[in-house]
Amino acid sequence: MMSADLEARVPGFLRGVRLQRDRVRDQWIVQAPERAFIVDPVAASILQRVDGNATLAAIIDALASDYDAPRDLIARDVIDMVEDLAARQILVCKS
Amino acid sequence: MTIPFPMSLLAELTHRCPLQCPYCSNPLALENVRNELPTDVWMRVLDEAADLGVLQAHFSGGEPMARKDLPELVRRAAKAGLYVNLITSGILLDEASFIPLVDAGVDHVQLSFQDVTPEGADLIGGMKNAQARKLEAARVIVAQGVPLTLNFVVHRLNVERIPQMFDLAEELGARRVEIAHTQYYGWGLKNRATLLPTRAQLEQSERDVAAARARFGAEMAIDFVTPDYYADEPKPCMGGWGRRFINISPSGRVLPCHAAETIPGVSFPTVLEDGLESIWTKSDLFNRFRGVDWMPEPCRACDRREEDWGGCRCQALALLGDAGATDPVCRRSPDRSRIDAAIAESADAPLTYRRMSNHKTQ
Ligand code: SF4
Ligand code: SF4
Question: Where do the TM regions start and end (chain A) (predicted)?
């Protein structure tokens, strides 16, 4: 796929999976059926923008401006992470 | 020792259940409906659990859908930020009873099946035509879009049908499957001679699960619990005593695991008398086997002591009469011969069903 096609996809959480603030332990977690796991602050900043409407391109743009970082670098991280989480039944991507 | 925050609350709302599985994890002395906690106390307990760090609430029983206030409790748990898991037999689940639970915020359902054949299911559940109702329940859950786990407890009488269990899960659209070998406490211990699989059956079950993992890949999450009788080391029961789980009985007793009520000589804390945080951090029961200081030899000097935490306290109690002993499943335990004798003893005998009348109180 071309990178424009890749970035046109819209990631969303699978039903029954969500990002949540664990206020007692002061960290971000993903809750899923029969498991909860910690997500690091970088992953959390990506997942906070996953709402089932925003395209990957929009998420990457927002992160690049928030962190004032090169867009290429951010794009690679975001796409890798989203694909990994899709393979693990956390996210789904609509094109 | 710093005390970890608990991760999960197992809320056993009731011991009422239309089924009578002969391996049920409920205690032999089933709680009467008159002693069940009222709605407002459960509400408070759910809030306290979230404040204490619990992330997931598992509503179970018995059959939790036998409680009329289940939608209210689910709503409260969801509002407190808890991930809500419903553990059900599905017998009471239809559109009319399930949609209010979805509206209230149920995140996931774990539906138990006793077998893949109606005859096998009736034999274990002790109820006629249960299978058809469970299949219908699965369809309702999937139609509502709620993620579904199928749970199969396996034993000598059904273990050969594991491949068909996965077929059924695929056909019904389940996202997770649990294949759990029977654990031999309480009712399961009573029926151990009939239910314990042979070593050949266990090995076949391992091959069947491996084949399913290869077949489904990431499409289906698979959880496999082996019978520890055939292992060399015990399982870390509940992830260690007082480390991850809080179990609350229908009458409000707070326990580190569902079988802990059998331990003699301790007073059981209850939510009617104390708050959850105080029970978790300060009670004698939760501190009794927490960490490694209580351990006897050979655990005390063992390099696995912080992996399996000396195994299951309730198994040590049930088989050796001492909850503070090394789990006899362990090859290093001086009492391992008890487990080997049980394996040699297994035979085809009639099942004792989970019923109030099948337990005489001493
Ligand atoms: S194991 Fe069987 S009898 Fe026990 S609560 Fe579950 S469904 Fe009911
Ligand atoms: S000796 Fe104790 S800690 Fe070591 S493996 Fe056996 S049960 Fe576990």
Answer: none
Whole-number CA gyration radius for chain B: 20
* Shortest Cα distance, chain A CAs vs residue B145, angstroms: 7
For residue B157, which of B209, B114, B116, B195 has the smallest C-alpha distance? B195
Residue B121's φ and ψ, nearest 5 degrees, are -65, -40
Number of H helices, E strands in chain A: 4, 5
CA distances from residue B87 to B26, B78, B223 in whole angstroms, order as listed: 14, 16, 15
**Can the peptide bond before residue B298 be classed as cis, meaning omega within 30 degrees of 0?**
yes
User: What would the mean pLDDT of B200-217 be, rounded to a whole number?
Assistant: 95
pLDDT in tens, B289-329: 999 999 999 999 999 999 999 999 988 988 899 999 999 99
Query: How far apart are the C-alpha atoms of B57 and B138, rounded to whole Å?
Result: 21
List of domains in chain A: 3-89 (1.10.10.1150)
The average pLDDT across B207-226 equals: 93
Query: ipTM score of the complex?
Result: 0.90
Contacts of B85 in chain A (CB under 8 A): 33-34
Report the predicted TM-score, pTM, of the whole model to 2 decimal places.
Answer: 0.91
pLDDT at B252 over 80: yes
Average pLDDT over residues B32-48: 96
In the reported structure, the alpha carbon of residue B125 is separated from the centroid of ligand 1 by a whole-number distance in angstroms of 8
DSSP character string of B74-94 = HHHHHHTTPEEEEEE-STT-S
